[in-house]
């Protein structure tokens, strides 16, 4: 009897992790951009990230889940994204806390987020960590070196002022546009040096001005 092989995903998939570092809005906006690009998203949010969400944004978890195609609890280690057999373009952790970075650097998987990141590395898929902290300690820098040597890309959300952003939303969109470039996805939100600016994807709804109930 022949083995059964699952069909390839109908559309590209991306695993999105949101950890407890400052910058929760990066993860929310990333989900919006990936939806506009018709990329299937698999979201995992850590417990610490929920605290950051409450401090930094008007969102509730239900608002964030609504922007994802699929949501997985951070303690659900039996989720599909915990297995290397789960096919995806890769994974983005936006933002990536120093705790999550340390777990990924040392192969410790205490949450589904870091397990999914570990799987992404072992399957040799792109893993982008939007590491958020400043200033960095030597431990932080060594962990960044370690994950880079393993194949991950450390992409701190550093603003590009040559784009002359008018709002915080502009800065967020440009940064995420450059992150998505790493996967060959053009969100239309990055101003490219030496090129004419293109109309960005319509922001629906605004990242920071949305009122929630």
TrEMBL record:
It comes from Ralstonia edaphi. The keyword Flavoprotein applies. Belongs to the UbiX/PAD1 family. PANTHER family: FLAVIN PRENYLTRANSFERASE, FLAVIN PRENYLTRANSFERASE PAD1, MITOCHONDRIAL. Keywords: Flavoprotein, FMN, Prenyltransferase, Transferase. Residues 13-182 form the Flavoprotein domain. GO terms for molecular function: carboxy-lyase activity; flavin prenyltransferase activity. Its EC number is 2.5.1.129. It catalyses: dimethylallyl phosphate + FMNH2 = prenylated FMNH2 + phosphate. FMN binds at residues 20-22, 46, 97-100, 132. This is Flavin prenyltransferase UbiX. Dimethylallyl phosphate binds at residues 162, 178. The gene is bsdB. It is an enzyme of class 2 (transferase). Flavin prenyltransferase that catalyzes the synthesis of the prenylated FMN cofactor (prenyl-FMN) for 4-hydroxy-3-polyprenylbenzoic acid decarboxylase UbiD. The prenyltransferase is metal-independent and links a dimethylallyl moiety from dimethylallyl monophosphate (DMAP) to the flavin N5 and C6 atoms of FMN. It comes from the Bacteria.
